[in-house]
């Protein structure tokens, strides 16, 4: 009887969490049951073909560039010994802390003097900026895959006369393909949902189109219909990612002796070090130098302030939002992962449904949340004078819908690595589900939880459209400050909040690296 009650409670909790985070997306999807032919004709006649082609070209360019750059760097760091290899290996993850729209306005100003303001705002430069910001996802996946490959297999290939290039292309790369593709799927989702960077470079994508149509012309029907195309692409990406996730698990090496870096000649080692350093200079060094220079200029001119307040006002708002949303997302994600881990395929499908918000553009999530919360406000379910729309609770809820997937999948990956015998032993000793979770599962998954928490903090600190649209009155964050300044091309004024954002991101990346060093697993 007790077991049935626990099982019933588990299903209620799973379905409740899924309903909580999927409802805003379903609210918008419901409006697509009866699509308007006139809207689609008008969209196709005006901007839709250009949006589709720009989105497709940008996706191919960013994903392709991230695969080439991330995989190459991962192989250099994993396969060869060179001065500063360990330090460089971790520094290559730092670009993850620099939002694309921050790197975007740095390079816009840096290159505008060379090619002109009009020539610098192009799809291709936008793609380069996004590659520099997103390649660490592929790099982390590829590096983990290369580290899992057995040294004996690679040594046997070398003994058969295979050179370094042959070992890489015929042995290492095919074995790492599932992990690389999983990282590429994550890059694709980030690119598909980007708003800030593409707007800076005047690239008209589907995600940017939803925001422009909905909040520019006020045409709810057209924006909803346009969002349906983006939703379909997001669902395909999620399904593709799941397939690659399963293949990646089967692709792990079984050799106990892992690959060790090979020694290089002084000249070759210097070449590898120069290549890695060049990437870091372009992706991190130049942006940081420009941000520091602009920040000093802005502070000396007394312009490091907005109508809402000074630097520390925005830093405080950002940290409060990051901490609140991260804690909520990791707690809900851990609870859902624990509940789903003990269920069958139906529960896992429900868990997948809860992640759909991660592949949705911020404006779509924001509007879905507003529609849902406005309906609750009209019913007057809360005390008089308090409204969910425009509140901190509403904003944190929207961030939960958008980023729950990061917390859930990170914890799920760690729970899958726990031996079933450990859980069975706890049950045999009389421990219930709650005690088993607290004493066995959560401690065993602690580094995975830490990694997921760090990734959540990175993503939430960089998030722009949801915060921009749903923040309470007078609660401006660093990302909002950056957006308001860059929209008027005030680069120096945008540098101060951007620099603080990068610092917060670097702290989170440091926590992520610490977790990965202790055995946590990065998942998409």
Mean pLDDT: 80
**Secondary-structure element sequence?**
HHHEHHHHHHHHHEHHHHHHHHHHH
Summed up, the helix count is 23
Instruction: Provide the CATH top-level class.
Output: Mainly Alpha
CA-based gyration radius: 24 Å
Kindly describe this structure.
The protein is mainly α. It has a single domain (about 5-515), classed as MetI-like fold. Helix content is about 75%, strand content about 0%. The protein contains 23 helices and 2 strands. The chain has a two-stranded parallel sheet. It is globular, with a radius of gyration of 24 Å. The model is unreliable at about 250-255 (pLDDT under 50).
List keywords for this structure.
MetI-like fold, 1% strand, 23 helices, 524 residues
Describe the secondary-structure layout.
Elements (H helix, E strand, L loop, with lengths): L1 H29 L6 H9 L2 H32 E2 L3 H7 L8 H16 L1 H4 L2 H26 L2 H9 L4 H29 L3 H5 L5 H12 L2 H31 L11 E2 L2 H35 L10 H31 L3 H9 L8 H18 L12 H24 L4 H9 L4 H12 L1 H17 L2 H6 L7 H9 L4 H27 L7
Parallel strand pairs: 1-2
Helix pairs in contact: 1-14, 1-15, 1-16, 1-17, 3-7, 3-9, 5-7, 5-13, 7-9, 8-9, 9-12, 11-12, 13-23, 14-15, 14-17, 14-20, 16-17, 17-20, 18-19, 20-23, 22-23
Describe the structure concisely.
Helix content is 77%, strand content 1%. With 524 residues, it is mainly alpha-helical. It has one domain (7-517): MetI-like (MetI-like fold), CATH 1.10.3720.
